[in-house]
Amino acid sequence: MSSRLFVILIPLIVIAIFAILSWRDTRNNPDPTRKGFFDRNGTVLGLVFIALVGFWMLFLVVLPYLYMVVESFHPKLSPSKRGGPDDVLTLMQYKSFFIEPLSGDMNTIHMWAFGYTIVISLIVTALNFAICYPLAYYMAQTGTARKVRLLMLALIIPYWVNEILRAFSLRLLLASKGLINQMLMGVGLTDAPIDFLGNNVGLFVGLSYAYLLIMVFPLYNAIESLDRNQIEAAHDLGAPWWKIHRDVVIPYAKPGIASGCTMVFMLSAGSLAAPQFLGGPNTLWFTSVVYDFFFQSFNWPRGAAYAFVLLSACIAFVMIVLRLFKVSLGETIK
Amino acid sequence: MSARFVFKAMIGFYIALFFLYLFGPLMVMAVTAFNTPNYPQAYPFEAFTLDWFVKLWNHRSMMAGLRNSVIIGIGVVLLSVPVGLAAAIIMGQISSRARGLYYLVTVSPVLTPGVIIGISTVIFWKDALSLTDVTRATFYNGTMLSIFGQSSFISAYCLLIIMARLQRFDRTQEEAALDLGASYPQVFWHILLPFLRPALISASVIAFLSSFENYNTTTFAILADKTLVTVLAGEVRQGTTPALSALAVVIISISIFGAVLYEVLKRREENKTTRTMRNAKEAERNETYA
Question: Inter-chain contact B213–A62, Cβ cutoff 8 Å?
Answer without folding.
Answer: no
